[in-house]
């Protein structure tokens, strides 16, 4: 018999069980079915607006889902995964239905990788395709000797943990005011990422301008990430202050991070994520040599 239990927080033992389940699915599917944010929220204790759905079969954890209801406008967002050894038995549909019920029938559901089984499940749940997120990749050799051209008056340095937290969060919120998933990052979200093994402040670049009072104003950033096991660099996030957009700052920051990944970290390839309908950004990345590698899809209820 299988039952779905919905909880606001999971124990250390259940975190380990769930991480093992996600790892097993990742080995089979080629990419995690639960996002980085979801994995951080799994092990970070109780979080406002976050619920965990656990599906057990005769005591064994066979499926996991997470529901995040923190966006004041959009429907709650969900992710789910079923252990590869227990697929084809209706567990995915049961978890999906539990997500629908827990969200009050207002749901956005990620399908990382856009696999056929996920598309089929979305159809069974009555969800329609809403968003396409592309993972793009690019060889890094050409960026090793890149000399970025920054707007006049802009200088670049690296992030100083603690000292730069507040200013960076404010800039990130302004740069991504149109993008709640990124723009809504909190101090706790930043702390979660600073606590990860991959975090490296030397790969976190800040663009600054000098203020009339002699102080410093953050105007842009490029946070890079290294996936050591895959020997893969990532354009984790690039942000530019609204009044600096269109100045070429974003392109210069992107080139700075790619040069760091190529020259300082000796990585052969870089990746990034971009919404497929963000035509200008896709065009910029394609001119830099990025090409689509795989696609994540988001489905949602029609209402």
* Helix content estimate: 25-40%
- By oligomeric state, this entry counts as single chain
First-to-last CA distance = 33 Å
Reported for the largest beta sheet, the result is: 12 strands, mixed
Compute the average pLDDT. Answer: 94
Pairing-aware structural class of the strands and helices? alpha+beta
Helix and strand succession? EHHEEEHEHEEHHHEEEHEHE
Put simply, the count of helices is 9
Radius of gyration: 20 Å
Keywords:
single chain, twelve-stranded mixed sheet, alpha+beta, 303 residues, 31% strand, globular
SSE map:
Blueprint: E1 2-7, H1 12-29, H2 36-43, E2 50-57, E3 60-68, E4 77-82, H3 91-102, E5 108-111, H4 116-124, E6 128-139, E7 155-158, H5 165-175, H6 180-183, H7 187-194, E8 204-210, E9 216-227, E10 232-240, H8 249-264, E11 269-275, H9 279-288, E12 291-300
At a glance:
The chain has helices spanning 12-29, 36-43, 91-102, 116-124, 165-175, 180-183, 187-194, 249-264, 279-288, and strands at residues 2-7, 50-57, 60-68, 77-82, 108-111, 128-139, 155-158, 204-210, 216-227, 232-240, 269-275, 291-300. The protein contains 9 helices and 12 strands.
Overview of this structure, please?
The protein is built from nine helices and twelve strands. With 303 residues, the protein is of the alpha+beta class. It has a twelve-stranded mixed beta sheet with strand order 1-2-3-4-5-12-6-11-10-9-8-7, with helices on both faces. It is globular and about 65 Å long.
């Amino acid at each position: 018999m299988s039952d779905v239990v919905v909880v606001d927080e999971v124990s250390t033992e259940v975190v380990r069980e769930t991480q093992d389940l996600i790892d097993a699915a990742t080995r089979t599917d080629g990419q995690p079915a639960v996002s980085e944010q979801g994995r951080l929220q799994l092990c970070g204790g109780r979080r406002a607006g976050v619920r965990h759905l656990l599906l057990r079969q005769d005591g064994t954890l066979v499926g996991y889902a997470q529901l995040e209801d923190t966006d004041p406008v959009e429907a709650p967002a969900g992710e789910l995964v079923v252990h590869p050894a227990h697929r084809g038995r209706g567990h995915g549909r049961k978890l999906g239905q539990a997500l629908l019920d827990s969200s009050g029938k207002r749901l956005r559901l990620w399908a990382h990788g856009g696999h056929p089984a996920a598309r089929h499940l979305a159809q069974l749940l009555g969800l329609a395709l809403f968003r396409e997120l592309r993972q793009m990749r690019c060889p890094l050799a050409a960026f090793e000797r890149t000399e970025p051209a920054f707007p006049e008056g802009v200088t670049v340095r690296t992030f100083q943990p603690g000292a730069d937290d507040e200013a960076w969060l404010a800039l990130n919120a302004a740069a991504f005011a149109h993008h709640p998933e990124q723009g809504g990052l909190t101090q706790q979200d930043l702390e979660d990422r600073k606590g990860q093994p991959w975090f490296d402040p030397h790969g976190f670049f800040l663009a600054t301008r000098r203020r009339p009072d002699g102080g410093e104003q953050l105007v842009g950033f490029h946070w890079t990430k290294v996936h050591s096991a895959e020997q893969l660099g990532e354009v984790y996030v690039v942000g530019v202050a609204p009044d600096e957009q269109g100045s070429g700052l974003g392109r210069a920051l992107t080139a700075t991070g790619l040069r760091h990944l190529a020259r300082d970290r000796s990585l052969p390839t870089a990746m990034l994520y971009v919404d497929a309908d963000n035509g200008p950004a896709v065009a910029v990345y394609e001119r830099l040599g990025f090409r689509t590698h795989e696609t994540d899809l988001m489905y949602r209820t029609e209402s």
